[in-house]
Amino acid sequence: MVVMFPFVYFTDKYRRNALSFVNDVWATVSTSLFCPVEVVGREHLPSVETPAVYVANHASYLDIYSLFHLRRPFKFISKVSNFIIPIIGWSMYMTGHIALKRTDRKSQMKTLKDCRELLQNDCSVLFFPEGTRSADGTMADFKKGAFSVAAKENALVVPVTLVNCSKVMKNGREWAMRSVPGGIKVVVHPPIRSTDANELCEKSFNTIKETLVQYS
């Protein structure tokens, strides 16, 4: 990735497809060694060229690895401290993911602006609308930021339900992985579009929540 980075940055500044491909392979191989990841509803995914806002529930560090199985070059938001983690953080920086200072209002506003710029340049973004990982796997209410961005850009919103990530790797016990029946499922729902952020938020929340109940 280090060798590829300068060329990719100047020829594909926003999507960085080549670097995203490396991430996808890395995540697919590393998770497959420990736990199967099945993508359900892959037919609902927009094309690689279509900019979209992906939104998912968040309960484990495995969430991102599982979402890379979608094989879409989206950019996700992560706290600043994650970008200094050796290897993983450096990879995130080179691939163009977005750093956020959670308690800094200016950083929050810049993050939303950066996401709009990415969408305007045909690059997809990924949000975890809960804002942080769930402590016990129970889904919290969604914040409106992701849906405001999608509404203003009239972008597709793709709800994604992550099933069993928190059971395989519990929050706070990242050193211990467990095998669970059926493995991890990444359930892709039909995209929705609206200029009403509240409508997008409500529909996405209900869709993801109902699917979690269905698989529980």
UniProtKB/TrEMBL annotation:
- Lineage of the native species? Eukaryota, Viridiplantae, Chlorophyta, Mamiellophyceae, Mamiellales
SUPFAM superfamilies assigned: Glycerol-3-phosphate (1)-acyltransferase
SMART domains, per database record: PlsC
**Biochemical pathway:** Lipid metabolism
Protein's name in the database:
Phospholipid/glycerol acyltransferase domain-containing protein
Q: Domain Phospholipid/glycerol acyltransferase: where? A: 52-165
| Entry keywords, A to Z | Acyltransferase, Lipid biosynthesis, Lipid metabolism, Transferase
InterPro entries in the cross-refs:
Plipid/glycerol_acylTrfase
Q: Which GO terms describe its biological process?
A: phosphatidic acid biosynthetic process
MF terms in GO = 1-acylglycerol-3-phosphate O-acyltransferase activity
The protein's organism comes out as: Micromonas commoda (strain RCC299 / NOUM17 / CCMP2709) (Picoplanktonic green alga)
